Amino acid sequence: MTALGELVRYDGRHVVVTGCASGIGAQAARLLRDLGARVTGLDVRAPEDVSALTDFISVDLADQDSVRAAAAAVDGAVDALFSVAGVSSGIGDPLLVLRINFLGMRQFTESLLDRMPAGGAVTNVSSLAASAYRENAHVTAGLLATRSVDEGLRWCADHPDALADGGYRQSKEAIILYGMQRVTDLGARGIRINCTAPGVTETPILDQLRSAYGQQYLDSFTAPLGRVSTPEEQAAALVFLGSRAAGYISGQVLWTDGGILGRRIASQMFDEPLAQGN
Ligand code: NAI
């Protein structure tokens, strides 16, 4: 039997991490390096600290040509892909949020899948903001039925209501359901696909939300664990899901939210009121 400590190691594996310049992606790159991986990092801006990376490739997930060029620049087979890059609705451009968080991420993922061997893993980052993904699935299904970035953009133009609350929720619900949509054919190739759904995590992305909605908005999310998450905690969950220790986990969303969703469901069961934001 292989020891658990061995199953989480990445020795000899090539991993690709988007969003490697900051926050959760930067932490994931460091953990993966420490676990023996060869790490190719991608981001729209160059990281200040490149010590975790074997290669850095510049990419703008909002730009199809840039995504195409970046995928082509990734060297060799890819054992694990971590799509962490993202923006919040605080940037004030719902279509751009959806382009970066979902359409660009999907284009990049699809470009690399042919180079992923059996045993490979795709791990994405959704959000607690996507907790109603089942209730809204009948809408999101239309977006998931699109086959290209251009088709996806046309769907957005035809469905302004879906992006009316900022684009973030829709993009993150699409990430969860994209994993479920692909779980069968990827599974047949021995590839797993999962995502995490973080609650509030102390990274620079919060500055976008602070300036758009104020600190009170962030303070309204109080987790049962009594604090916000660190980027290291989020990265650890990603690294686990991409590792052989998670070998029978696929098509899942892991709510890395300090217990908020569990409390919400319990409060509905027992009809207890919740504070705003929770
Ligand atoms: P962050 O802002 O520290 O990192 C995001 C990274 O994505 C940055 O390095 C940024 O340069 C990169 N990026 C942004 N636009 C890009 C583009 N067009 N092309 C390529 N790269 C781009 O934020 P954080 O918190 O580390 O975010 C990581 C993921 O976690 C995101 O997908 C975010 O939506 C998600 N998340 C974060 C939460 C939080 O409270 N921090 C909560 C729920 C989800």
Report on the structure:
- This protein has helices at residues 4-7, 23-34, 64-73, 94-112, 137-144, 149-158, 168-188, 205-213, 215-219, 231-242, 260-270, and strands at residues 14-18, 38-43, 55-58, 80-83, 121-125, 192-196, 253-254.
- The chain is α/β, with parallel strands linked by helices.
- The protein has a seven-stranded parallel β-sheet with strand order 3-2-1-4-5-6-7, sandwiched between helices.
- α2 crosses α10, α4 packs antiparallel against α6 and α4 packs parallel to α7.
- The longest helix is centred in the middle third of the chain and has 21 residues, at 168-188.
- 46% of the residues are buried.
- 1,4-dihydronicotinamide adenine dinucleotide binds next to α2 and α8.
What labels describe this entry?
Rossmann fold, globular, SDR_fam, NAD(P)-bd_dom_sf, oxidoreductase, oxidoreductase activity
Percent of residues in helices: 40-55%
The ordered H/E elements are HEHEEHEHEHHHEHHHEH
Based on DSSP secondary structure assignment, what is the total number of beta strands? Answer: 7
What would the principal axes of the Cα set say about the shape?
globular
The mean pLDDT is 96
Strand order in the sheet with the most strands: 3-2-1-4-5-6-7
Topology-level CATH name: Rossmann fold
